[in-house]
Amino acid sequence: MVTLILLGALALCVLVQLYFSFFRFLPLSKHQDPEPDVPRPVSVIVAAHNEQDNLFELLPQLLDQDYPEFEVVLVNDRSDDDTEFYTFELERQYPNFRVVTVKKTPEYLNPKKYALALGIRAAKYEHLLFTDADCRPCSPIWIKKMQAGYKNGAEVVLGYSPYAQLKGFLNHLIRYETLLTGIQYLSQANAGRAYMGVGRNLSYTKSCFFKNKGFASHIKLTGGDDDLFVRDAANNSEVSIVIDKEAQTASIPKKTFREWVVQKRRHLSVGGRYRAADRRRIGAFVGANVLFYILFFILLVLNSHFAILGALAGVRYLTVFPVYLAAARRLDEKISLLLMPVLDLVYFVNYLFLGISVVLYKKIRWK
């Protein structure tokens, strides 16, 4: 009797995953970005703290974008490296490059949000485009492609930001996690239920920022300058997505498991601030995957109903994973189908322990 109940629960987990795969993720793989229309003046904003080496590479790529009218606003956030000297020379070379310097963050305010808010206030143009210092635009028409998202009256445009493909299992895991996170928030936004974006590739209007009182609802929290702002903006603003490869920014992944865990804990720490409906959807997807593995291994240990167990695992492997691959191809992510079961298991087990650690140890720090 107990094993039948467990098998029923396992089957339910598979059904939940099939629902998300076919009714949310599969439509994303067929999404077509809008074609660019009339170019809008754009302010590209980057907040950087001791990112001199990254800025050496990033800023020239931003300033050489193929776009008729734009500026790059760098917020030099309390840096004590050579950022100031380097950017001084760039200001002389590029009339559309400006620097906002932060000497000290007011007490009780989050440094990054404070820096971004200053950059937004300093921006000349209505349309704002954000990325991080450790990112690189994937094409010289990144600005052009991202601004196409405003074509149908949107006030927020969500982009995708993959991590660079390097050697090693950790890199495979990071890119798999990025893919699953991406297809979740992009597919929900595509269905009219936006709940987050990533600050590595995000655009919104200045009017939208002030209409939603900026970062006021979460100004003291570490993290949330991207996802929690999108949460607030989605309540009264149209949100669109742009996912073509040319509209992406590639990021440099963490090199050690410890660094990645710290980063993921920071991201997960704001999840409790999402709207209840969004938490339920995320919880259903993650919970169905985590519970699938728990129940699968329990039933494996009980040595019963191997045929049914194998059938359910086979259905999941032959239906869910191909949908992930279709979404990956649309996002130009290269994920191995053979390695996917291992990555999936490690990712969701790790997600479980990370979630527990965030609940038990809530102190999260920014730079």
From TrEMBL:
Molecular-function GO term, any one: glycosyltransferase activity
Natural source organism: Pontibacter mangrovi
InterPro entries: Glyco_trans_2-like, Nucleotide-diphossugar_trans
Keyword Transmembrane helix: yes
Keywords tagged on the record: Glycosyltransferase, Membrane, Transferase, Transmembrane, Transmembrane helix
SUPFAM superfamilies: Nucleotide-diphospho-sugar transferases
Top-level taxonomic group: Bacteria
Chain ranges passing through the membrane: 6-26, 282-300, 306-325, 337-361
Segments forming domain Glycosyltransferase 2-like: 43-174
UniProt keyword Protease, yes or no: no
Protein name per Swiss-Prot or TrEMBL: Glycosyltransferase
Membership in a protein family: Belongs to the glycosyltransferase 2 family.
